[in-house]
Amino acid sequence: MIKMPDKKNEKRAGMKWNQEQMPVLQRITWVDINRFVLIFLVVAGHVSTPYNAEIYLFHIPAFFFLSGYTANFHQKSFPKFIWKKFQSLIIPYFCINIAFFLLRYMLHCLDLEAVFYKDVMTLSQLGLKMGRFFKYASSQDIGGATWFLVVLFSSNVMGFVVLRFAEKCHVKDWITLLACIPVYIFCFYLHSHKIYYPYMTDLALHALIYFILGFLFHKHQVFFLHINHAYALPISAFLIYFFGRINWIPMNWPTRYFDTPGTNFIAALAGIYLSWFVSVCLGKIKILNGLLSYLGTKTLSILFFHFIGLRLFYLMLYLTGNGSSDQVRKLVAQNHDIWFYKTVFGIGFSVLIDYFIRKNDNIAYLFLGSRAIFNERGKDQILPDR
């Protein structure tokens, strides 16, 4: 049974309390491990596993939930908060995607493009595609996962506004959460009618309820103080199995392919709980928690570079006679038998790239949002290592 922390053992629980009795997040092991668990599921989902139906039920909402859980609005003004998020999310988003476009064009210039792509990227096409990127946030294929940063930035800004407004107006937390429900339902109307807001603002509105929920779960220590795990664990596991295997429901954020507000929310909440439970349990395994915590601080690099790692993985298979050239040219190749090896290789490659990028503070700042360049180590951001 998981031992639940309270105010008497807050040091061991990794948190302290300010004068308003609002828990301020320190570096908690399960949070870093949860980062890794979720990014592992992201990469695994991209390599196409036999468990994709279950993974896609919750892995994206869980990231927004954890971002809300680790958010701290009480130490920053609104402009400072926006600037901080802009540096850690939007600057890396633009820099890494521009680098990916240039990499694609460089392959064309070196006559290596045919190894990885079926089409070509001429200089004029590079200009057109980069124009679409700036106008519509249309990324190069290996940067396809970077859409998440834009949505995360917007949901953080929205969450700041909502929670600060609720605090100043003395709105009860349950009312604040209820107020997000109409917005959440409205987003399903937008998705079903293929109404897309600029820079995926519709997805940010959709994510807001998970962000607020995460913030309130942390504030009231719901996981540790208000859940009966003897019931929550089997019920959550059954819901994920039911919606993943028996009565599958879609949840694909980039394509706006969802089921209903109720089923998607229930499935997401079940998965969020399970990912938390698994993370806490892994944190109790001393031989693993250090490594998993470290990998959890490399989430942004894994998000950025795992697609390149997957391409290289299939290139090695092709060169050794164990794969086809067609697999190398696909962003996601269907091969369930080796999904775990692909996932591990993609993550390992990303961590290696992260190591070299962090050798230079300026490059680390531009591509990873690392704040070493301006001497600030934040602890409330879900993706970049601080």
Key words describing this protein structure:
single chain; 386 residues; mainly alpha; two-stranded antiparallel ribbon; 67% helix; 3% strand; globular; disordered C terminus
What can you see in these coordinates?
The strands form 2 sheets. A two-stranded antiparallel sheet has the order 1-2. Strands 3-4 form a two-stranded antiparallel sheet. The model is unreliable at 1-26 and 372-386 (pLDDT under 50). The chain is globular, with a radius of gyration of 21 Å. It has helices at 10-13, 29-47, 52-55, 59-69, 78-109, 113-116, 123-136, 147-168, 173-192, 201-219, 222-225, 229-246, 261-283, 286-296, 299-319, 325-328, 339-357, 361-368, and strands at 15-17, 23-25, 251-252, 257-258. Helix 15 (299-319) packs across helix 17 (339-357). Helix content is 67%, strand content 3%. By secondary structure, it is mainly α. It has 18 helices and 4 strands.
Radius of gyration: 21 Å
Q: Strand fraction band?
A: under 5%
* Backbone structural class: mainly alpha
Estimate the helix proportion, in percent.
Answer: 55-70%
Low-confidence stretches: 1-26, 372-386
**Terminal Cα separation, in Å?**
32 Å
Q: What is the topology, as strand order, of the major beta sheet?
A: 1-2
Q: Please, how many helices?
A: 18
Note the overall shape: globular
- What composes the largest sheet? 2 strands, antiparallel
Number of strands: 4
Instruction: Give the mean pLDDT.
Output: 88
Strand/helix succession? HEEHHHHHHHHHHHEEHHHHHH
